[in-house]
Amino acid sequence: MKLRGSPVKVKVLDHDMVVFRDARGRPSALLDRCSHRGAPLSIGRVVRGAVECSYHGWRYDRSGECIHIPSLTKERRIPKSCTVPSFPCAENDGYVWVWTGEGEPAPLPAIAGFSSRYWVQGMVEAQCASLRAVEINLDWCHPYFAHRWTHPQSYRIRVKGFSEGRYETRATSSGMILFAPPTKTDDAPVPAEPGIKLTYELPDRVSVEFFRPYHTRAVMHFVPTGPSSCRLEYVRTRSLPIGRRIRWESREPLLFAQDRTLLEGGQPWYDRDGGQFERSVEADWSTIMVRQIVEQAASGQWPPTELPRRRVISVRG
Ligand code: FES
Ligand SMILES: [Fe+2]
Prior knowledge:
With 317 residues, the chain is of the alpha+beta class. 17% of the residues lie in helices and 32% in strands.
């Protein structure tokens, strides 16, 4: 969502937040709950860099401190306890990054080469678990069926038919890379420009890159908003480098809607039995690998010790 002069409601994991800009334009993130009677601050307005509650007009600065209570007479002070919890946040590469963890915020996860490209930016809410949405973007075998006429792989198979090929996965310090065609040997470096490259970075970022006929790229974050819901925040490169560097798109691209329909349709089955029904084949390795990465990182085993560093998978597609 866009962040301009009005407060914006944002959910990250199970934190409901209001995000707004202070008088200097810096982003601020507070719990979306007025300390007076609990009204959501996100339906209020921003006044001189402070967010004003729309119930009785209490105002909070970027640190969550209450700086104005309209009903107080002159001789009364604002009670110290009238604060709202705040979250550290910073702005970079077209996004506001909010820290919900303990201790010092982690370094900002930069998007490599962001400033040298032109982007379309958008957001889609999805009623499926974040990990399911990550997986589908690393799933080599779905575009032909799921993305009729919206994905290069769908066109290729429709024109040339199915063929046998291989993709390669590599474990990295922050997740994994999948690319095709594979390298010849275990110690060959990852090619700078393979045909297709899919990158997963913990905890929720997937980048999709095609290098031919020219370099296109989409960077997607699947922000969890609950156990069975997430929000896709994406930027994708524009072919023509003209106009604004970042253009907002409010209509969901068909390609994303195709994935979302499948994921939302399947989610209730995962909710019911946790995915016990699932069966997989060798070609699904990339999905299995991303799950193992998430599982190991969540249990504190990072970098992982048991994941194969490199694997080449035979696949028909
Ligand atoms: S509930 Fe927010 S000012 Fe009263
Ligand atoms: Fe897809």
